[in-house]
Amino acid sequence: MHLLPGFEYYEPKEISEACKLLSELKASAKIIAGGTDILVNMKKGLLIPRYLVGISRVPGLNGIEPENGGISIGSHLIVAKLVEFEIIRKKYSLLSKAAAVLGSPLIRNRATIGGNIITARPAADLPSPLLAMGARVKLKNKRGEREVSLDAFFKGPGQTVIKPDEIMTKIVIDEAPPFTGGDYLKLMHRRSLEIAIVAVATRITLDGPNGLVKDARIILSAVAPRAIHAASAEKALIGERPTVKLFEKAAAIASTECTPIDDIRGGAEYRCAMVEILTKRTLTTACKEAKGK
Amino acid sequence: MKKLITLTINKRSYELAVAPNKTLAQVLREELNLPGTKIGCGIGDCGACTVILDGRTVNSCLVLAVQANGSEITTIEGVAEGQNLHPVQQAFVDHGAIQCGFCTPGMVLSAKNLLDRNPRPTESQIREALSGNLCRCTGYQKIVEAVRAASGAAKK
Amino acid sequence: MKKYSIINTRLQRVDARAKVTGDARYTDDLSMPDMLYGALLQSPLAHARIEKIDTSKAKKLFGVSEVVTAEEAGLVKFGVSPARYDETIFCSDKVRYIGDEIAAVAAVDLETALEAISMIKVDYEELPPLLDAFDAIREGAPAIHDDFPNNIGAEVHQEFGDVEEAFKTCDYVRTDKFINKKQDGAFLEPQSCVAVYDFNGNLTLYTSTQSPHYVQRTLAMVLGLPIGKVRVIKPYVGGGFGPKAAANTLELAACLLSIRTGRPVKMTFTREQVFWHSRARHQFFHELTTGVKKDGTLVALKNTCYLDGGAYSSFGIATIYYAGSLLGAPYKLPNMKYDGYRIYTNKPANGAQRGHGGVAARAAWEQQLDIIAGELGMDPVDFRLKNIMQKGDVTCNDFNMSSLGMKECLEAVKNDSGWTKKKGKLPKGKGIGVACGFFVSGAGFPIYRSETFHATAMIKVSEDGGTVNLYTASAEIGQGSDTILTQIAAEALGVRYDDVRISSGDTDFGIDLGAYSSRQTLMSGHAVKQAAENVKQQILEVLSGKLKIPIQDMDIKGGVIIFKKGKVDFSGLRANYIKEHRGWTDPPAGDYLTFTEAARIAYLEKGVVVGGGAYKPGELGGKYKGAAVGTSPAYGCSAQVVEVTVDMETGKVTVDNMTDAHDCGFAINRTNVEGQMQGSLSMGLGEALFEEIKFDNKGRVINPTFGEYRIPTSLDMPNVKTIIIESDEPNGPFGAKEVGEGAIMPTIPAILNAIYDAAGVRISELPVTSERVFMALKKNKK
User: Fold this and answer.
1) d(C-alpha C264, C-alpha C258), whole Å
2) Are A169 and A189 part of one and the same domain?
3) Complex ipTM more than 0.85, yes or no
4) What is the pLDDT of residues C433-442, one digit of tens each?
5) CA-nearest residue of chain C to A266?
6) Same domain? C522 vs C555
7) Per residue in C557-604, pLDDT tens?
8) Residue C67: which residues within 8 A CB-CB, separation 6 or more?
9) pTM of the predicted model as reported, rounded to 2 decimal places
10) Neighbours of C (≥3 Cβ pairs closer than 8 A)?
């Protein structure tokens, strides 16, 4: 298992060069970012690309910059920086919370935000908080650039709408409205090096410091082929006063909205039950945070 | 086809021709005769292959050598200065933090990198920083005590 | 207890600096000129007959030097115990598990070797795989091994006292079942070896092993090499824990390839292959019936155990006995019946792993004892204190507790953990639990019937007097044996720690059965002590002759000669030494004659100053069948208190605190003893909460990675309090006995008992995942 198959490696210097390369190589080429997912799959013999294209050093893909009041994050920003950068910790804390429990410190120093999205693993840590924050991704190819809402990005395990010649360049998150709070809870066996048994990302916006729920996002992961909204649970919260009873009600609804399987990390019955617990807990924390703002 | 790359390892510059499918761990062990970096699993689950790459600890089994072109790398062989152990190494020795020693290179580098960034970590921060390095022998107890001691913290 | 200068200290490990700088060379770090790389062809099927193997294409691949199958390897059977030699290097007639070895290739590099492997064509006739132990013993199940048509590879029936009669006298009898899962040693360093067959017909194998001796014997026997032509050298080893205690196909294949190619051959397992090879913790299905009097006195135990053994026997013939015998202590138990069945299944073979067959049995029984104590309204610590054995007691199965600090261990953890303040007073979701355990200090008998010494040692003092060279075939695998043997040598001879240089793990240095059954401190320690005392005697004899002083009026301590009866004029000896070292700028000076000078003088007199030591246990108890497994010159024991938090909604168990007391007789190195305790607790915690090998319905291991076979990380282990108890074992060197395996025994049940205290549920199936606890809590609510 431990040897990599042979491949050619390209390291284009500019984004335009990268786009041109991908348009030529198409499906026989894969972008390698942090490598923590793709190289594992190559070593296991699950993936045998003929070409790997590394664009970590291409300018514009590694930093963060303001965009329309929100933030634009380069797709190759490493996960560790999502925890280290103060602006993300303070204004996009849901993303920091999830980033902090991804893999291990060693993995976080290589894995990228773009990589964690594009691999489209049902139990991945970053898609669900990004969905809860209504994030969008920018996809660029030789012909131009398009923006896709993350809600429309995932099709299934390992499947997204990205085309073989497209490169994900940025992840854009709008500024959160006032009185917004969020939480991410990941149920794991150990406390590090874990893929979620179940995870819930919740974002609540109130219409005032002690107001009613104006907006609610409850994203469940590891319980369906891709991260999903607990849409009925979200609806049940809108316009209501945020109380413990309300959270319990929404949590109970959320647990009926997932279709988990029995797999190596846990059984379906347990996962549904945990959706309820984690939804209730994240709602409680998100609301507390929302009131504090 | 092999690519010509330059790696600065433990402050020495190496110019090498490497196949794209060689990991940094393989190049260190097989081409450069620096076998202090160990392979425990090959897929990033254990941390035995930890090196410091451009200031960050990484699993070198998941870094292509070609990706490290132009980078600065510290392996376990570069931590001591001549016969003088780094304070982290000395603390490991003094506190019995080493048993079979296979996780030790990775642990030392993770601990060193922690203290370089955060000279006075709490115990929780120490455990967090080491949470990508598995050890089967020690139960981590004396490793954590060693890192605390190396940071200058008073004994508990 | 006597005060020593070198032992009972916290001296730095002799190998610490090499390991912490990356200087230590493990087997896969070795490289030889003109070395080839080997790879194995392993079965993709759990059970099949081999119709045909076609290696022709593989042989022709450019860069391939040799391809071997059973045809070249032969069919000499091997295993661990001669009574159960049931393996051949390669499969010839059938494959018995996914991973079973069929062929090997040596090539210029690993890529080529692996490509050649993929070119070997095997025609199989698939047979129904037996993946469940109980299916394997059902009427009509196919035989996995022809010699065992009912798939029961070993069967044990023992009774001490009369259990049925004893139950009649009991006030309370209860039966409980318990199962664990197949687990893995999960050492960080995969097995690896480099075989070198030279042009003089000498075979040298460098290998990551716990027992160079057992590997050497197996190589010679299976490969048909003349005795004396096989040498096994153990480089640094990255952990063993049991699975590395016997020879494996990797080693045999590499040697065969080296013999046939005339070049060095390196072979290293991937992590996946380590899981396939296994030879690790068995799965045990226990049913225990225990009877007590209403005042808490233990009366009788009936223990039935089915062991899922996997495809081959490995250490299983010992495991099956330990699963019964290791409940004979540390409590007074006059009646014990044990029926054990080790079953062959088409899964990777199980063998020995830290604590061997005693871990699951101890977990099952200590939890049951807690239930019983609860039924009787007794505090679990008091219940145990009431029943524990004392020094001098003998178990019903003839284990002699020549020392036993069980009471001290139990009281220590009770006091240190704050048991009395906490038990019964913690809020819901928080709990505290206790358990005890014991283990052998070395198996009383070698794995092959023999009168061999269990350990020999040689000490040669360098001719210049400056270094004491200690040669031992014992295996340092991380547990610290090199360090403590150096300490024992220095203490017994009277020199300084730094004066001794140990060379170990090489079969050229003598006999040592290796690092398993927690034997080296006691057994290798005895041999080293003897060798050191022998050398001391020789040197003092020479001095006695030269200085005309009786030997008993002299001693060696701290690297100098001690004259017990007043001042002695040794100036003549010193003058000779200085005359021989003209030009040196640091002549010996001061009031004491140094060891270096004395050793030099002894050399000049004798020519060679070499001392030997050899140890084997004396007559050990038990004349019944199977008495050999479990008898030991000494027994270590331990007690543990664990505190947990159970999240009552998710079922997640967090271990907050562990307090462990272990009686190691006498700690040669206190730091090392603590380290072994902490490591044992970590493995116990992992086995309790996370670890299990999972199979699909074809018999494939589906979690052969450290990502899905979960050992504790630094965030999963709490701080552990270790208390060393020293009961001064009369059969141990300086009073020392084991710690390496005994300390794991109470861990799993202490956690289980704490979980019950916190959440009110008894879990009788490992691992205790959050899902398992959740389901138990749910059931409890109904």
Assistant:
1) 6
2) no
3) yes
4) 999 999 999 9
5) C771
6) yes
7) 999 999 999 899 999 999 999 999 999 999 999 999 999 999 999 999
8) C55, C58, C59, C103, C104, C105, C116, C120
9) 0.97
10) A, B
